[in-house]
TrEMBL record:
Key words of the record: NADP, Oxidoreductase
Stated family: Belongs to the aldehyde dehydrogenase family.
CDD domains, alphabetized: ALDH_SSADH1_GabD1
Designated name of the protein: NADP-dependent succinic semialdehyde dehydrogenase
UniProt-listed SUPFAM superfamilies: ALDH-like (SSF53720)
Amino acid sequence: MAIATVNPATGETLKTFDPLNAGEIEDHLVRAEQAFQEHRTTTFGYRSERLLAAADLLEADLDSISRTMTTEMGKPLAQARAEAKKCVKTMRWYAHHAEELLADEHPDPADVTDSGAARAVVRYRPLGTVLAVMPWNFPLWQVVRFAAPALMAGNTGLLKHASNVPQTALYIEELFRRAGFAEGCFQTLLIGARAVEDILRDPRIAAATLTGSEPAGRSVASIAGDEVKKTVLELGGSDPYVVLPSADLDKAASVAVTARVQNNGQSCIAAKRFIVHTDVYDDFAARFTERMSALTVGDPMDEHTDVGPLASEQGRSDLEELVDDAVHRGATALCGGRRPPEHPAGWFYEPTVLSGIDPAMRIHHEEAFGPVASLYRVADLDEAVTVANDSPFGLSSNAWTRDPDEQARLARDLQAGGVFFNGMTASHPGLPFGGAKRSGYGRELSGHGIKEFCNMTTLWYGPES
C-alpha cells in the first residue's frame, strides 16, 4: 500500500510520501538507541514536565489535528475532537501517576529472610526502544496510549503507523519533539509493512506492541518470538452485546447504536453481535433498527453527520462481502445493506441491521469492520452465554441486566478482556485494556499497561550490604 493521504469521503489522493530507505531507517535506529541511553536515566519529574507540555500543545492543536484525522480516515469531526481530548487526558494521567505506579516495592523482610537477604527491593526499569505498529482507525489514540506510558517509564519509541494516516503519524513525532523530549525519544517511520521484520529483528529493538488485524499480530508475534522479545497485541474483536429482560430497553437500544457505529463502525471494541433474550427481542429489535435507520450518513466534516465513509475502498468491499454472504444464506437486512445512492463518491455504507444470523454465515465468525450489526434471538441466559462465547475473539463484551445473579454469571463466564454492565465498552487510562483468545494478549493503560514494557528487577541485599 502506498504511503498517502487519500480522502475516503471523495477517493481523492491528497498527498503522497516516499518510504524511508535502508540508510534512513538505520539513522532512526541509531538515534533511538542513543536517546534511550540518556532518557532512561532521567527523573520522573523531567519526563512528566515534557508529557504535560505535549498535552498542552495537543490541546492547543485540537482543531487542526482533528481535521487531519478526519481527512485521512473519515471519522466524523466531532469524534476526532473527542479522540484528541482523550489523548490529552491520558497524557496528563500518566504524567501525574507514573512515578507512583512504578515506585519501588519493598517485600517484608520477614518474608524473605530465608533467602539470606537482609532486605530486597523490586524495581521497574525500562526495556529500551519499543517498536509500535499501529492502525488507522484511532490514529492518535492508539499511539498515545502506548507512547505516554512508554515514555514515562523511560523507554523510547519507534512508530510504524498505518500507511493511510501519514500526516497524523508525522504530527505525533513533532508533538513530542516540540514538548521537549530529546531527539530520538519518539520517531515516526514512514515505511511499508515489509520493512517491519528487519527492524523488529534488530538488536536495538527491545520489544514491540501492535494493534491491528489477527494476521498482522501473528506475524509480529512470530518474529518477536523467534528473537525472544516481549510483545503486547491488541487484535480484532467481535464483541457481544447481551440484552436480558430486566434491562432498560430504551437506553439499551440507544447505547447500542453508539456502540455499533462509533468511528463509522470501525472499532475493535465496537459491539457487533447483539444477543437478545426472546422475551424482549422484538421490542429491542424495533427500537434499535429505528435508531440505526435514522442516522445521518455524509460528509464527516459536517457537524451533523453521524456516520462518515469507511477508511478504504477495500474495507467497504470486505464489509459488503460479509453482508451479501449473510443475506444469500438467509439473513434479513432490517435496514441498510447497501451503498447509499446519495453518496456515489467516497466509500460510504449504510448503517445496517441483520437478523437471522446462523453459524453457516461468515459474519458469525468474522469481524464486521463497519456499521453493520448482527441480531441474535436467544431463549435464556445459558444460550446467551453460549452464543456470546461462540467467537474466536474475546476483546470486550457488554451486558444489559439489572439482576445481580445474572451479572455474577456473566462476569464469571463471558470470555473477554472486559465485561461492561449497562453501558458500552470504553477505554480509560486508569483501567487495564486488552483481550483474550485471538484478540491478543497483554494489557494497555493503567498500572498494568505501563509495566508491560518494564524489566521487573529484583534487588537482593545480603547481610553485609
